Every structure is written in structure tokens, then in C-alpha cells.
Amino acid sequence: MYELKAVHKRYGLAKVALRKIDLTVRDREFLVIYGPAGAGKSTILNILAGITRPTSGDVRRDGVSILRVPPERRDAAMAFENYALYSHLSVGENLAFPLRARGLGAAEIASRVARISGILGIGHLLDRRPGLLSGGQRQRVALGRAIIRPADIYLLDEPVGHLDAKLRHKIRAELKALADDLSATVVFTTTSSREALALGDRVAVLNEGRIEQAGTPEELYHRPANAFVASFVGDPPMSFLSVAPRREGDRIAFATPGGMPVAALPARAVESLRDEPGSRIQIGFRSNEVRLAGPDDPGTLRGRVDVVENLGYVKIALVGIGEDQVSVSFPASRHLSVGETVAIAFPRDAVHLFQNARAIAHAAPYA
Amino acid sequence: MLQRDSSFAKEALRYGLIVIVLGFIVFPILWMVLTSFKPPQDVMVSPPRFLFTPTLDNYYHAIVDKNFLFYIKNTLVISVTSTVLVVIIGALAAYSFARYNVGDGHILFFILSTKMFPAIAVILPYFLIFRNIGKTDVGRFLGIGLDQPGALIISYTMFNLPFAIWLLVSFFQDIPRELEHSARLDGLSRLKVLRKVVFPLAAPGIAVTGVFTLIFCWNEFLFAYILTRQKASTVTVGVESFFTLQGILWGPVAAAATISVLPMMIFVLAMQRYMVRGLTFGAVRG
User: Fold this and answer.
1) If DSSP codes are grouped into helix, strand and coil, which group holds residue B182?
2) Do A145 and B176 touch (CB under 8 A)?
3) Do A95 and A148 touch, CB atoms closer than 8 A?
4) Does A138 contact B286 at a Cβ distance shorter than 8 Å?
5) Domain boundary pick from A232, A263, A296
6) Measured between beta carbons, which residues in chain B are less than 8 angstroms from residue A74?
7) pTM for this structure?
8) Exposure of A321 by Cβ count < 10 A (0-12 exposed, 13-18 middle, 19+ buried)?
9) Alpha carbon of B127 to those of A170, B104, B118, B155: distances in Å?
10) Domain coordinates of chain B in residue numbers?
11) Are A213 and A86 in a shared domain?
12) Which residue of A has its CA nearest to B184?
């Protein structure tokens, strides 16, 4: 088990990469660190690897500080985002490098190189120099070099980011299977929500050097801790509608500025809603939690279709309602054109409630 | 047809220019080589003769009478030793500058600034320093003193280091840090990373630096002339010794010059492959 305790990392005087984060990597888990570019994902990996030293805070392995252990004695294997292949060695020699450095026998090395290059589909490239490979091929070599040897922890920095969609899907599946197979501890960074949800036993959402939320994919998706996580996890991201609360008996109703009620929750469920004038209250929901309604259905909101995205199996419409934009999924067989006015029906109880971007309540199914 | 004619004219112009440029470059060398085979009466005639009975007398005079191979040996020892020192010290220094930004750029600039005055400005202090060191036991033991190889080796190392460091810094900066990080994680210690990853990757740059340094040492005249008399004299001083009070012995001069050019020429041709790779940079990319 690896623990980051109040790890703070500053580069120079001004640039803060990590802000006092606490993070645990459990044994044999597949932890995904998910966040936008520049969030500090690579810094976390570098600190776990021992390449970068935190400005303050502690890094522990099974309770013992490893701050002073140099990288070569940490037993971590890492795939770098910019590949970091040895350009003076062939692909095969690159793959064999970590094994040679550990003094494995020639036969053992050959069989491992053959196995890994087979899994990654780079068996035919073994004699080439990295300089002659495409970006996707280099990335697979970098990944192969990281996973070729048994390690205490595998640190994979966006290892499939430069692959085409088909290959990415395939390698992702292989990677997950391999990790399960080896019961390996993996820390994997990505900027793809889909990858984070698909791969992670747990996902830590990182933003501007802070961990916004760490939990299982289900927790992040259904019970986001704040608006950032809600809008960042899931594709399409969660939509928000600004609302104002109004007490209705033992329920609290939420209505749009135009007065249209879109949700009502039991007062008990929204106890943490504070009565602060000027605070921003938003209802959040996923594109599949709302639906297109008939024009005369009661209790719907009208909006204008701004964009229609066809995902093949389903279509997503971005509908402008007042100041907000809401994504609605609808069957691919239906046709909607941009500019059209549509009515949207809201699930009155299946919503997420945010006050000043902090989650207050997750209603009904996700409570 | 017209097109073919114009392209023919273009080609003719191209080759014409190449011949002219080559003429300027090759002619002095050709003159030197031809003169080295000419009998004395054919050397200074005008117009120059290109057809003559070749003779090896000049070479015999240079090698046997003047013992010119002794100068070659001296030069070889001094140049190679200086070059090895320059490359080792330069590579280690340049690596620290490139990776750890030692001295925040100020030390690096200071090192370059030592190249800003002409070599002749320091020749007198050098002369006095080496004369005095040469009189001590340590100086005698290490061969550092006037007319001893150590004096030139130290001078050449000193004079080539700044340039070598500057050249190598850019090569090391081109190597992505992640390569070293990756090698550390793969289990190599800091020193092993240098040996197995950094230096092999910088090899073209190190080759270029070594070749430049060797050429400079081989061709250096001023320091060799002032700091040596006879025992440690190098080829440039050796060639100069044919300029006697009785006159210049052009034939033997040409023979000696030809002999002293040959090793460098062979060496540079052999290193050409690495040189081009080093000079074009960009060779290091992950």
C-alpha cells in the first residue's frame, strides 16, 4: 500500500503542481488518476516513482516513509507520456532493457520480449529503432517496457493516449486483463472519462493540484462530490439547471427562474442545504435522466436545440434553456434539427443537487 | 527538346561552379602533394610543371635526415592525450551544466569568456609558469615544463575545454530527462545511467567534440612554437624548421606537410559518418 500524506509540490516559486493531497494506492488495485491536462497527474506518478521529491509531505509504502529511497530501489515500473524510449537501442533492446538491468538470463529475456511484443502487436518491429516508429507504435513500446517485468507498482502515464480508437480499446482491455492476471498494483493516468470509468477499480479526480474526489467509478458517476466531478466524469458531462428552492409542506421544490418546477425532494434529503441569500443552487442530471417530451405534456421545459451529436447507438442534443445548456439523449432513429424547439421532461426525484458547486444531495436511486 | 536543353545548361552551370570551387579548395593541396614529389629544379619554375619525373628524395630528406616521424609521434601523444582529457572533463562538466544548471548560467558564461582573448595574450605567463614548474621535482616527474609534452597537453586541454563544454551542453540538453528517469526506474544507478544511456545517446556530439579538439591540437602552432624547443616539438613546428637561414627547402617542406596532413585526413574520413550525425543534431529523439 502506498500513501501520499499531505503531499505538496511546488515548481519554482509560483507554479504549484500539487496542493497538500492525500491519496492511498491499495495493494493490487487499478487506480486511475483522472483530470484535465496540467492537473498534476504526472507529478503524482513521478513522486511515487521517486523521480520528483515533494516540496513537503510524506510518501509511505506499507507505513514506512520512502522519501529517501532512490528510484532504482523502489521497484516501480513506469511508462512515460512522451515514451522516453532509448533511441540508440532497437525496440527489442528497449523492451529487454529493464530485464538486462536486473541481470535476467538471455532465454528468460527472449521469452518475455516475445510475449509482451505479441500482446502489444509490435513483434514485427523488434529490430527497428524507435526513431522510425509512429507515435502509436512508440507508445506501445513504452508500455511494453513498463509491464515487461514484475514490479511492486506500475505507473502508467497516459499509456494509450496516442493510439487510434480501435487499438486503444484493444490495448485497454488487454491491460486490464493483464493487471487482473498479475494481481498488479497499477496507477494509470488519463484525460478520458471513458477510460477512467472503464479501467479503474477506483478513480481519483484531480483538478489544479487537488483531489476533488476519489472513489469507485459508480460513486463518481452517481454521487459526484461537487460540480467539477459531475461535469468531468461521464460522457456527455452532467448538465446543470439553475434553480431556486421553495418549501412545499414536507418537500422542497426547485423551480427555474421562470417558475417552472423541475424537481421536488423531501426536506429530510436536503438538510444540508443552507439558507444563504445569493448562493447558487443547481440541479444536475445526466443526459439519460431527462427525456424529450411531447409538446403538450405538462411539467416540461421548452428549449432550443443548439447541437445534435450522433453517437451511432444514441443521439445527444444540447438544448439551451435560459442561461443553461442541457444535454438530452434520445433514440438514434429520431430526427432533430438545430434550431428546433423541444420540450424536456425532468425526473422530479432523480436529481443531483448542488449549492455553490458542492453536492448537497443525490436523490432517490443514488441516495 | 527546349526543356532538355535548358536543363542541360543548368547542369553544366552547376558542375562548372563545383569545379571552380573545388579548384580553389583542392589546388593548394594538389600543389603541396605534387611539390613533395618534385626534384629541386622543378619546384619553383614558372609556369608550374605538372609533368616531371617524380622522386622520393624529399620524403627521404624529411623522414631520415630531419627525423620528421619524431614530430608526428610527439604530436600524436600530445593531441590524443589532450583530446581524451577534453572529452572526459568536457562531457562531465557539460552534463552537470545541462542537467543541474550549475552556477545558474554564470559559470558557463565565465568558461566561455576565457575564449575571448587571443591566445598570444597569455603566452608569456604560460611560458614563465611552465619554465618554473619545469624546474621543480613534480614538474620534472610529470613532464610539465618547457619543451615537455605535459606543458602542451595542459595548454591544449585548457584552450579546448570551453568550446567543448559549450558544444556538449546543447547535446545533453537535447536528451529528454525522462530517458534518465526511465533508466533509473529500470534499476540503474546514477553513474550507470550516464554510462548506458546518456553517453551512448550523446555519442555523436562527443565524437564531433573529439574530432574538433583533435584537429585543433594537431594544427596548433603558436603554443607549440613558444613552449617547445626540440624534444616535445609537434609537426607544425617541425615543418617550420625547414625554413632555414640558407633558404626554404620547398620540396622537403611539402613532403613534411603532406605527411602531417595524412593522419588527420584519414581520421576525419573515418569519423565522417558520426560527424554528420552529430552536426545535424536532432539525432536524439525518444
Assistant:
1) helix
2) no
3) yes
4) yes
5) A232
6) 185
7) 0.81
8) buried
9) 73, 34, 15, 11
10) 57-279
11) yes
12) A72
pLDDT of residue B89: 97
**Separation of alpha carbons A221 and A239, rounded Å:** 13
One-letter amino acid of A104:
L
The C-alpha cell of A108 is what? 528468460
Cell (9 digits) for A50: 521517486
Distance CA A176, CA A267 (A): 43
Q: Which residues of B touch A87 (CB under 8 A)?
A: 201, 283-286
Alpha-carbon distances, residue A29 vs A7, A43, A349 (angstroms):
21, 20, 35
Q: Work out how many domains chain A is built from and give that number.
A: 2
Tell me the nearest-neighbour CA distance from B86 into chain A, angstroms: 24
Domain identity same for A122 and A24 = yes
Interatomic CA distance for residues A54 and A7, integer angstroms: 6
Helix (H) or strand (E) holding B235: helix B235-240
Domain span at residue A110 reads 2-232
Task: Mark whether A50 and A139 lie in a shared domain.
Answer: yes
| Structure confidence by residue, pLDDT tens digits, A222-253 | 899 999 999 999 888 899 999 988 888 888 88
Q: Please list, in sequence order, all residues whose beta carbon lies within 8 angstroms of the beta carbon of residue A319, skipping any fewer than 6 positions away.
A: A303, A304, A305, A306, A325, A326, A327, A328, A342, A344
Same domain, A219 and A284: no
We report the CATH number of the domain holding residue A220 as 3.40.50.300
DSSP-assigned letters across all residues of A109-167: HHHHHHHHHHHHT-GGGTTS-GGGS-HHHHHHHHHHHHHSS--SEEEEESTTTTS-HHH
| A218 and A248 both lie in a single domain | no
**Looking at domain B57-279, does it have CATH number 1.10.10.10?**
no
Asked if residues A157 and A80 have their Cβ atoms less than 8 Å apart, the reply is yes
Residues A137 and A221 in one domain: yes
At A273 the pLDDT is: 84
- Residues A346 and A343: their CA atoms lie apart, in Å, by 10
Answer for the pair A285, A328: CB distance below 8 angstroms, yes or no. no
The answer for residues whose C-beta is within 8 angstroms of residue A286's C-beta and 6 or more apart is A234, A238, A239
CB A15 within 8 A of CB A164: no
d(CA A280, CA A360): 12
- Which set of grid coordinates corresponds to residue A192? 478520458
Q: Return residues 24-83 of A near B (CB < 8 Å).
A: 46, 49-51, 70-72, 74, 76-78, 80, 82-83
The pLDDT of A147-160, averaged and rounded, is 92
Chain A CB within 8 Å of residue B137 CB: no
Among all residues of chain A, which has the CA nearest to that of B177?
A84
B186 interfaces chain A, CB cutoff of 8 Å: yes
Q: Are residues A334 and A253 part of one domain?
A: yes
Q: Of A174, A205, A232, which one is at a domain's C-terminal end? A: A232
pLDDT at B284: 44
Question: How far is the C-alpha of B210 from the C-alpha of A201, rounded, in Å?
Answer: 54
- What is the ipTM for the molecules in this complex? 0.81
Question: What pLDDT does residue B95 have?
Answer: 95
Going by their DSSP bridges, the two strands A281-285 and A352-355 should be labelled as: antiparallel
CATH number, domain of A320, equals: 2.40.50.140
Strands A30-34 and A202-207: parallel
Instruction: Please tell me whether residues A141 and A277 are part of one structural domain.
Output: no
Q: Does A131 touch chain B (CB under 8 A)?
A: yes
If we measure between CA atoms, which residue out of A285, A336, A14, A37 comes closest to residue A158? A37
